[in-house]
Amino acid sequence: MSEPDVLFCLHFLGGSARSWERLARALDGVPFCVPVDLPGFGDAAGTTGYSVAAMADHVAARIRTRAPARFGLVGHSMGAKVALALARRSEDGEPGLTGLTDLILISGSPPSPEPIPDERRAKMLAWIDADPETRRREARAFVTANVGQPLDAADEDRAVDDVLRAAPAAWTAWLKSGGREDWGRWIGVLRTPALILAGSADADLGEDAQAALMAPHLAHHRRVTVAGVGHLLPLERPAILAERLRAHFGDRPGQADPDAPAVPPAYAALIDSERVNSRLREALGARAAPDDPAYRPTALDPVELAILRAAMGRVVPVPNLDLAARLDRRLASGEGDGWRFSALPPDADAYRAALRTLDAAARAAHGRPFVILGGNDQDTLLTLCERAELTVPDMLGGRLDADRMRFWFEDLRADAVRLWLGHPAALARIGFSGIGAGGDRDGEIADGLPGFRAVGLDSPEAWEPRAAYEGTAR
Amino acid sequence: MNLEGMRAYREDESVDAVVVGTGAGGAPLIARLAAAGLKVVALEAGPNFTPERFAFDETLADEIYWTMERLSGGSTPEAFGANNSGTGVGGSTLHWGAFVPRADARDLRLHTESGMGVDWPLAYEDLRPFYERVERFLGVSGAQAYPWDAARRYPLPPVPRNGPAQIMAQACEARGIRWADAPAAVVSQDFQSEDGPRRNACINCGFCHQGCRNGAKASMDVTYLPFAVSRGAEIRAEAFVHGLERGADGRITGVVYRQDGQDRRQRCGTVFLCAGAVETPRLLLHLGLANSSGQVGRNYMGHVATQVWGTFPNAVRMNRGYPSSLITEDFIRPGADFAGGYLIQSLGVVPLTFGNAAARGRGLWGKPLLDYLDRYNHIAGIGINGETLPCDANVLTLSDELDARGMRKAHVSFGYSTNENRLNAHATAVMRGLWEEAGAEDIWVLERVAHTIGTCRMGRDGSSAVVDPQGRSFDIDNLWICDGSTFPSSLAANPALTIMALSLRSAEAFLAEGH
Ligand SMILES: Cc1cc2nc3c(=O)[nH]c(=O)nc-3n(C[C@H](O)[C@H](O)[C@H](O)COP(=O)(O)OP(=O)(O)OC[C@H]3O[C@@H](n4cnc5c(N)ncnc54)[C@H](O)[C@@H]3O)c2cc1C
Ligand code: SF4
């Protein structure tokens, strides 16, 4: 596939359409960049409507005016959240927005509330409508604090000017509400191929935040961290950004069909044989079907689903099987297993609280989200759960105490293994012959089912499968 | 089961009896009362299945479990759902293991013997004729000479010993422990159910807990219930009872139930509550009825049901064969530092049950879990069913959480006391010893609680019991309870055969009054 015709470029808080000039030059019209001033910024400083939805409407109008057949959305920081909202509308088939081919998210503000420390937010709110001198000083401090290496003087001056051009009300609205709006569930999981870029020197929206809060919303994405860059990649390294875009258009993520655990041919033949009844064959077939990478969770939100995927990957480490999505579907169906530990809240709530607690524990212990930790560190935290030793104070985001985390982890292990062992690849792996004890028969009570003739030790029948580790030869 | 051509009663007609629940407690008496010519309507919360649904798969069998949520607390929280609670026409017998030892006579007078627990208000000899009737009617297979009861003869020859049973037999032999082919309510030969279907001999498929496809296992839907329907009983499925209407004299006049989203009422002369040891007390507590003793919900019991697992060099393939085909009752009175005792059975389980045990009970996860599951075909288990004494702290109450119908969920608090802990330690050592004797490697212990028992105890005195020795409420004379909830103590034996025997006994007592 080739480039989109047009890239609509949405700037960061305090930026403007001008922030994209150097990228546009580097791309040289392929694709053509259409930078947009968001309401309250740049030439649109006089326009109001600062919520994410209003900003998205503003951009949607621009897209409709140009009516491109194929377009990409490039969103930087604040602009990324607007781009994500538009992508959801596009994927939902909104007229005029349907040609979306790519999402480029640069140091993006995620669908869920932006993880910015309260003091920093308070400070930014304090000076934006102060006296001109303070404003100029602080605007420069803002720009310099957000880059890895100093910009050259002219670029820095233009960036400072952009900050000062912004309507203080727009600036304040983003910090107080737009950036805190929770669009996580509504945006859900997008199918559009995405490139997630982060600067290695970005404080709040660097690679960890992108992995934990952005990536879970994008079924087909590639994450790239650019060394030495802060929060303002389009200003800091436009040439590298252009290069990354071209690489993305040349090789979009998620083009291959999804994988699923393989069912060995001999076991597949048993499933197809008349020893297996149709209802079971159909169920095994459904369980063997590949999982949709863009599965949209309903009991959990996408960020929680990602934490669950990471934990599931440690509990039942089998590739290409999305046990987390299967569990979410079960939790959402409300079909419980008939009981729960009375110490825990209802199943879906318990899962949400526990996953958030696990993530908080990772942040407390390692300063990083659970999803990005190495397997050994993840295992260490899960082992603490198992021993009822995982304690995270409320103020650090702990929602369940150590005893409850132990109960939850017991439930998780059981849920994981039950889902895995329902899969025909699992049954094949352990050499389970039970599925072949009876096929279809008419009538309420079956006549003449084969069952097992010999049931004692060391008397397998010729057709019975063997466990994978024992080899297929008999 | 096939309900075509079933007799139908009008709701405004006052039938002789409404039976709530069609499991082990309900079905035998529905059959007996119908056979006596009474007008009987059975109301069952679960759906009506036919064995055609049963598909040799654990996940697909979820539909036969009671999945309305219960809250489990206490120091030994018990799992419900697939662990012990079924639903549907036939109740928990759709998925039960059909392992049917009789109660040991000594267990019924445990207090006299040991000063602990309680005595039952009836003796083994009161139960024996009913045990025999049930065993004959169901077609119980078992040892032709039962080592612990010379007088006992099972109607059918035993089902074949599977891998775990062979291992346990050898180990018992080596340690001088007596063993026998287990009594199983599974027909080892083709069997014509009286006024019911022809049931095919067990095919050794190993899926008893998921529903028997060929009628070999005695679930109520292929035994007592077809008989009941043939004698004029009506069974209404998906009918959840949530109210009892009473006249000015306090006697019950009708039963209120919800079916197809609508409340309906059936007028009746007598009600038999047979909804199991969780739903029966829950309903009574919900309605505030039959509880002048304050005993409803009290003395909840689950059996000590610890299992020991091990890995063998042999191809055990424990999924094959009737799962619990060997028994020893040598430890019903081990003469140790605790009252009562336990029986031991051999165990084979299907993969999800096994994986659940390994993940929950053994605490495995990650590669060790996958590696252990790989050994499935070489693993065999052994387990007990052990006495649990009634205890004040073990109680069923209504939680503040509501279910989808707006009824408060049951909260069950359960924990072992000293006697259970001692029994458990003894049994664990014995089972470990047997598995070591048998050459098992990688032996581990699964702590487990099984069955739902107690909460509406029977007794002779209305100030300390909910029902009399026949099962009749002390407070409301046309309300009877007939299910696992009336047990004053747990007994070492698995409960269902005794529940069925008591069910027939209640029916006879009711009929003897001239109904
Ligand atoms: C996996 C498993 C294996 C078992 N194996 C054995 C075994 O090998 N041997 C043994 O002796 N026992 C075994 N049991 C236990 C045995 O099945 C039960 O003890 C027995 O069935 C209990 O009988 P009951 O009448 O008390 O309740 P149930 O058989 O559970 O019947 C209660 C019925 O009432 C219905 N009901 C509940 N509430 C309402 C309401 N409000 N309105 C209408 N209907 C309602 C339910 O849907 C259910 O059908 C096993 C249980 C399980 C789960
Ligand atoms: S093992 Fe026998 S009794 Fe059990 S389900 Fe299979 S056929 Fe039925």
From TrEMBL, chain A:
InterPro entries: AB_hydrolase_1, AB_hydrolase_fold, Carboxylesterase_BioH, Gluconate_2DH_su3. It comes from the Bacteria. One of its GO terms (molecular function) is hydrolase activity. The keyword Hydrolase applies. Residues 9-243 form the AB hydrolase-1 domain. Keywords: Hydrolase. It holds the Pfam family Abhydrolase_6. The keyword Amino-acid biosynthesis does not apply. PANTHER family: HYDROLASE ALPHA/BETA FOLD FAMILY, PEROXISOMAL MEMBRANE PROTEIN LPX1. This is Alpha/beta hydrolase. It comes from Methylobacterium longum.
UniProtKB/TrEMBL annotation, chain B:
Residues 83-304 form the Glucose-methanol-choline oxidoreductase N-terminal domain. SUPFAM superfamilies: FAD-linked reductases, C-terminal domain (SSF54373), FAD/NAD(P)-binding domain (SSF51905). The keyword Oxidoreductase applies. Residues 446-502 form the Glucose-methanol-choline oxidoreductase C-terminal domain. Keywords: FAD, Flavoprotein, Oxidoreductase. It holds the Pfam family GMC_oxred_C. It comes from the Bacteria. Coiled coil: none annotated. Belongs to the GMC oxidoreductase family. This is GMC family oxidoreductase.
